[in-house]
Write a structure and sequence with these properties.
Blueprint: H1 2-18, E1 24-28, H2 35-51, E2 55-59, H3 66-73, E3 81-86, H4 87-92, E4 108-124, H5 132-141, E5 147-150, H6 153-166, E6 171-174, H7 178-187, E7 192-196, H8 197-205, E8 209-214, E9 240-248, H9 253-267, H10 270-278, H11 288-309
Parallel strand pairs: 1-2, 1-3, 5-6, 5-7
Antiparallel strand pairs: 3-9, 4-7, 4-8, 4-9
Helix pairs in contact: 2-9, 6-11
């Protein structure tokens, strides 16, 4: 019986060792030049070296990530198609559409988390609002008279979480991208914005905007001058936008383990870390089990905020 068990395990080891037999397609639901695309290309280059086969980025932007997610969900589960995506496809879309062409849990195998970014609440540097408490007091004193902008659904959800926790009334104004909202924030049409720290840091370091709070329990080393959410007086203001790798449902367990191991190793490579630090961050990896549990918790978390804000697709 022991010999039989060893022989049964042999095909799994052989399959993992032989993989990949061809190019690995890493689907990204964003256009070239987007943050996920840029960081994805860094890791794909390293994985290509490790695997001895090309790992290429396949940009399938548009449609809030629906076409890309459906493509991966229908792909052969052979480990040669991976999905490098964000909270948008797996935690946001389930609450925006009555019917999705994919299921965020049932159609994918979690492989590893890849990145995580907090949000920062921004006001212009010449604003009289110096702290998050100042902003909250103003919005409470003048309910419904102030606007906040967002050029992405994650940015809006982060602002809505602040609004819900602070108990304030402010009007959302939508934009096609977060940068398109910056002129209105600087001119005073918008009172505040909440955006990811990568884009927020550019505005703060450029001297145009002031950060009032980071959406994490500790300060961010990239923005050490900005208070954490507890320091700002709103300890439950904790939310991050994130990215991670998935594979089509049914991808063999041994391949999931192999791919996870290689992604973690690539992310810890000194040269890769140096390149990521130049981009303003560090990769965040996990086991497949950890990423699966994280995905489920994020679906619930984002859903509560979206439902409370009654966010609908325009």
């Amino acid at each position: 019986m022991a010999a039989g068990a060893g022989m049964a395990a042999l095909p799994l080891r052989t399959r993992a060792q032989a993989w990949p037999a061809g190019r690995v397609n890493i689907v990204v639901p964003f256009p070239a030049g987007a943050a996920t695309d840029i960081t994805g290309r860094v890791i794909a280059e390293k994985l290509s070296q490790m695997w001895g086969q090309a790992a290429t980025i396949d940009n399938r932007g548009g449609g809030n990530g629906l076409p890309a997610a459906e493509f991966v969900a229908r792909a052969r589960p052979d480990g040669l198609t991976l999905f490098l995506t964000s909270a948008m496809t797996h935690a946001v879309n389930p609450w925006l559409y009555d019917k999705l062409p994919y299921h965020p849990l049932n159609d994918f195998e979690p492989v590893s988390q890849f990145g995580r970014l907090p949000f920062v609440v921004l006001v212009p540097t010449d604003s009289r609002l110096k702290t998050l408490a100042d902003l909250t007091a103003l919005l409470k004193a003048e309910p419904g008279r102030h606007n906040f902008g967002a050029g992405s659904l994650p940015a809006r959800v982060a602002s809505e979480l602040y609004r819900q926790l602070a108990g304030v009334d402010a009007v959302h104004i939508g934009y096609k991208s977060n940068p398109q909202a910056f002129p209105d924030l600087l001119s005073g049409r918008l009172t505040f914005m909440t955006i990811d720290t990568t884009n927020g840091r550019l505005q703060i370091d450029g001297g145009k905007m002031r950060g009032l709070a980071i959406s994490t329990p500790q300060r961010d080393t990239r923005l050490p001058q900005v208070p954490s959410s507890p320091e700002a007086g709103l300890p439950d203001f904790q939310i991050t936008t994130w990215t991670g790798f998935y594979a089509p449902k049914g991808t063999p367990r041994d391949l999931i383990v192999r791919i996870n191991r290689d992604i973690v190793a690539a992310c810890n490579d000194p040269q890769v870390l140096t390149r990521f630090e130049g981009l303003g961050g560090r990769p965040v990896t996990s086991t497949p089990e950890e990423f699966g549990a994280f995905t489920r918790s994020e679906i619930d978390r984002w859903g509560k905020i979206i439902r409370a804000a009654n966010i609908k697709l325009d």
